[in-house]
Amino acid sequence: MKKMEVKIIPALISAVLLVIFISPVFMGIFNIGNAVGIIVSGSLTGIFIFWKPFTEFVKQLWNKPTGKIFLCIFTAIVSICIVIAVIISIFMIRAVNDPPEDENTTVVVLGCKVKDGRPSLMLKRRLDCAYKYLSEHESVDVVVSGGQGSDEIISEALCMKDYLIEKGISPERIFMEDKSTNTSENLEFSKEIISREGLPENITLVTDGFHQCRAEMLAKKLDINPNNISGYTSWYIVPVYWVREWFGIAYYYIFG
Question: Which of 62, 120, 123, 129 could disulfide-pair with 231, CB 3.0 to 4.6 Å?
Answer without folding.
Answer: 129
